[in-house]
Amino acid sequence: MHNQRVRIFVTGKVQGVFFRQSLKVMAKKNNVFGWVRNLKDGRVEAILEGDEEKVSMLIEWTHGGPANSRVEDVHIRNEKFNAEFSKFDVLY
Q: What pLDDT digit, counting tens, does each position of 30-64 carry?
Protein backbone atom coordinates (compact mmCIF):
# COMPACT_ATOMS: atom_id res chain seq x y z
CA MET A 1 0.00 0.00 0.00
CA HIS A 2 1.46 3.33 -1.09
CA ASN A 3 0.32 6.65 0.28
CA GLN A 4 -0.11 9.69 -1.90
CA ARG A 5 -0.78 13.40 -1.52
CA VAL A 6 -2.14 15.58 -4.29
CA ARG A 7 -3.36 19.15 -4.56
CA ILE A 8 -6.09 19.54 -7.15
CA PHE A 9 -7.73 22.55 -8.75
CA VAL A 10 -11.12 21.97 -10.38
CA THR A 11 -12.42 24.47 -12.94
CA GLY A 12 -15.96 24.83 -14.27
CA LYS A 13 -19.36 25.15 -12.63
CA VAL A 14 -18.12 23.75 -9.33
CA GLN A 15 -19.34 26.27 -6.75
CA GLY A 16 -22.92 26.28 -5.44
CA VAL A 17 -23.49 22.70 -6.61
CA PHE A 18 -22.51 20.80 -3.43
CA PHE A 19 -19.11 19.93 -4.91
CA ARG A 20 -17.22 20.39 -1.63
CA GLN A 21 -19.76 18.51 0.47
CA SER A 22 -19.95 15.65 -2.06
CA LEU A 23 -16.16 15.38 -2.16
CA LYS A 24 -16.11 15.22 1.65
CA VAL A 25 -18.62 12.34 1.63
CA MET A 26 -16.53 10.48 -0.98
CA ALA A 27 -13.31 11.13 0.96
CA LYS A 28 -14.79 9.87 4.24
CA LYS A 29 -16.12 6.73 2.52
CA ASN A 30 -12.66 6.02 1.12
CA ASN A 31 -10.58 6.94 4.16
CA VAL A 32 -8.92 9.87 2.36
CA PHE A 33 -7.93 12.90 4.43
CA GLY A 34 -7.32 16.58 3.71
CA TRP A 35 -9.55 19.50 2.84
CA VAL A 36 -11.52 21.23 0.09
CA ARG A 37 -12.37 24.90 -0.38
CA ASN A 38 -13.80 27.36 -2.88
CA LEU A 39 -11.43 29.88 -4.44
CA LYS A 40 -12.37 33.48 -5.28
CA ASP A 41 -11.80 32.82 -9.00
CA GLY A 42 -14.58 30.20 -9.11
CA ARG A 43 -12.40 27.11 -8.85
CA VAL A 44 -12.35 24.51 -6.11
CA GLU A 45 -9.05 23.53 -4.48
CA ALA A 46 -8.47 20.35 -2.49
CA ILE A 47 -5.68 18.42 -0.84
CA LEU A 48 -6.16 14.66 -0.77
CA GLU A 49 -3.98 12.33 1.30
CA GLY A 50 -4.32 8.59 1.61
CA ASP A 51 -3.91 5.27 -0.12
CA GLU A 52 -2.83 5.81 -3.73
CA GLU A 53 -5.71 3.74 -5.13
CA LYS A 54 -8.33 5.62 -3.10
CA VAL A 55 -6.82 9.03 -3.95
CA SER A 56 -6.86 8.06 -7.66
CA MET A 57 -10.51 7.07 -7.34
CA LEU A 58 -11.35 10.48 -5.84
CA ILE A 59 -9.41 12.30 -8.56
CA GLU A 60 -11.42 10.33 -11.11
CA TRP A 61 -14.63 11.38 -9.32
CA THR A 62 -13.64 15.08 -9.47
CA HIS A 63 -13.62 14.89 -13.28
CA GLY A 64 -17.39 14.39 -13.12
CA GLY A 65 -18.33 15.84 -9.75
CA PRO A 66 -21.85 15.85 -8.30
CA ALA A 67 -24.99 15.95 -10.45
CA ASN A 68 -25.32 19.74 -10.99
CA SER A 69 -21.64 20.49 -11.55
CA ARG A 70 -19.96 20.95 -14.92
CA VAL A 71 -16.25 20.20 -14.65
CA GLU A 72 -14.13 21.76 -17.39
CA ASP A 73 -10.64 20.98 -16.11
CA VAL A 74 -8.83 19.26 -13.25
CA HIS A 75 -5.24 20.27 -12.54
CA ILE A 76 -3.35 17.79 -10.36
CA ARG A 77 -0.11 18.50 -8.54
CA ASN A 78 1.69 15.72 -6.64
CA GLU A 79 3.07 16.75 -3.27
CA LYS A 80 5.12 14.99 -0.60
CA PHE A 81 2.93 12.76 1.56
CA ASN A 82 3.30 13.68 5.22
CA ALA A 83 0.24 12.23 6.99
CA GLU A 84 -0.70 15.73 8.11
CA PHE A 85 -4.47 15.14 8.34
CA SER A 86 -6.66 12.91 10.48
CA LYS A 87 -9.97 13.87 8.84
CA PHE A 88 -11.42 15.61 5.79
CA ASP A 89 -12.67 19.17 6.15
CA VAL A 90 -14.64 21.64 4.09
CA LEU A 91 -12.90 24.98 4.55
CA TYR A 92 -14.82 28.26 4.33
A: 999 999 999 999 999 999 999 999 999 999 999 99
**d(C-alpha 38, C-alpha 42), whole Å:** 7
Q: Which range of residues forms the domain containing residue 12?
A: 3-91
- The answer to whether 38 is a known catalytic residue is yes
Number of independent structural domains in the chain: 1
> Among this protein's residues, is 30 annotated catalytic?
no
Sign of the torsion angle spanned by Cα atoms 11, 83, 32, 59 = positive
Claim: this prediction has a pTM higher than 0.90:
yes
Considering the candidates 20, 43, 77, 82, report the single residue annotated as catalytic: 20
User: Which residue in 31, 38, 68, 70 is the catalytic one?
Assistant: 38
CATH number of the domain that residue 67 is part of: 3.30.70.100
